[in-house]
């Protein structure tokens, strides 16, 4: 009996989550009003260097993300004056739950529920309830050469970004912030998870280019600038990226 009750309770929670996700998806892809995005910094490695970086962090660092969305949306006929409004929240002390590595569907669903609960429990933003929450965990580049995988989920519209705590990396951090933010709006990855190479043609900024390589921009959900059939490099800033037609359809800027 107790097991049946737990199953019924889990199914009910999943039903409520699905309904909420559908309502949120519908509201956020109408693009008839500005979407509020809150960015939450975290000290990913607990270092003094990262603490000092977060102490000096200003919302201006993320303004290019809003400016990019404004310009890109207008290219697809979105007439809204300010599609995206970005705000900086106070630092979050507790790190988010780690995503399952190679986990089954149930493990992923359970992690997603835990992440949403964690995001609500650790929301430090003092203002209107944001439409999307992007948590940026910063790491000291002097002690971390590589960072873990960033994630973005449309269920609850939450992104978790791993970035370097150095102003020299701010522009590249914003590329990841933008990529994960668009995930929260419903955009899908357009690159091979095993190789990191963008899919052709949907993951290319200029699939019609002749010669095809090297490309000079990245499709934002393709994640990288293809320089050959087997090599690609990360964009230096959001301005070296663009939103392709398929991505625009997924986030409501054009008919899919």
Task: Summarize the helices and strands and which ones pair or pack.
Layout: H1 2-28, E1 35-43, H2 48-55, H3 63-75, E2 84-88, H4 105-121, E3 132-139, E4 151-153, E5 158-164, H5 170-184, E6 218-219, E7 225-226, E8 232-233, E9 241-242, H6 245-250
Strand content: 15-25%
Distance between the termini: 46 Å
Biggest β-sheet: count, sense, barrel? 5 strands, mixed
Strand order of the largest sheet: 2-1-3-5-4
Count of DSSP E strands? 9
What keyword list fits this structure?
single chain, 256 residues, alpha/beta, Collagenase (Catalytic Domain), 2 domains, 5-stranded mixed sheet, two-stranded parallel sheet, 6 helices, globular
Quick structural gist:
The chain has 256 residues and is α/β, with parallel strands linked by helices.
Q: Can you characterise this structure?
A:
It is globular and about 65 Å long. The mean pLDDT is 91. A hairpin with a 5-residue loop joins β7 and β8. The longest helix has 27 residues, at 2-28. It is of the alpha/beta class and 256 residues long. The protein has a 5-stranded mixed sheet, with helices on both faces. Strands 6-9 form a two-stranded parallel ribbon. Strands 7-8 form a two-stranded antiparallel sheet. The protein contains 6 helices and 9 strands. Helices cover 34% and strands 16% of the residues. It folds into 2 domains: 34-186, 3-Layer(aba) Sandwich (Collagenase (Catalytic Domain)); 190-256, no CATH class.
